[in-house]
Amino acid sequence: MIQIRKATHKDLATLVDFQQKLAYETENIQLDRETLYKGMQAIFDDAAKGFYTVAEEGGVVVGCYLITYEWSEWRNGMVWWLQSVYVLESYRKKGVFRMMYAHVIQSIKNDTSLIGLRLYVDKSNARAMQVYESMGMNGEHYTVYEWMK
């Protein structure tokens, strides 16, 4: 049975591995392991940056996601950003992401200070867009622009 729980520092090596796989799978990017490790360690060291949640079966982590925060002065509430979603290939199409997503939505519904959920997806990742749309999300409202150093 799959359990959803907040990630702990003991999950860090697995999460680093997952994020390297995710970057390569979705954007054909090879992330520097040391930089990634330090970036993920910073999340565990500073809860204001966000938190990871994992899906686990029989003591084995099979999926994860990262939540980061955006304050909305327009709505006087916090928006969660769903990021770094990864499910082991052997667990895909078995409802793992659906369970993780349901966990996020229930957490937001249970906390009156939380007002919604956003995510971004690479425009070429059609599979992910189909999954998010099947969960009732839409990409019709905003387009994300970025400038990265």
Using brief descriptors, characterize the structure shown:
5 strands; alpha+beta; about 150 residues; five-stranded mixed β-sheet; single chain; Aminopeptidase
**How many helices?**
4
Low-confidence stretches: none
Q: Portion of residues in helices?
A: 25-40%
CATH arch. level architecture? 3-Layer(aba) Sandwich
Superfamily (CATH H level) name: Gcn5-related N-acetyltransferase (GNAT)
Widest sheet: strand order? 1-2-3-4-5
Q: What is the H/E order?
A: EHHEEEHEH
Overall shape: globular
The counted number of beta strands is 5
CATH fold-level topology:
Aminopeptidase
**Domain count:** 1
How many strands, which pairing sense, and closed or not: the largest β-sheet? 5 strands, mixed
CATH top level? Alpha Beta
CA(first)-CA(last) distance: 42 Å
Mean pLDDT, rounded to whole units? 92
Percent of sequence in beta strands = 25-35%
Whole-number radius of gyration? 15 Å
The helix/strand class is alpha+beta
Description:
It is a single chain. The chain is an alpha+beta fold and 149 residues long. The protein has one domain (2-134): Gcn5-related N-acetyltransferase (GNAT) (Aminopeptidase), CATH 3.40.630.30. The chain is built from 4 helices and 5 strands; from the N terminus they run βααβββαβα. A 5-stranded mixed beta sheet has the order 1-2-3-4-5. Helix 1 crosses helix 2. It is globular, with a radius of gyration of 15 Å. The protein starts with a strand and ends in a 15-residue tail after the last helix.
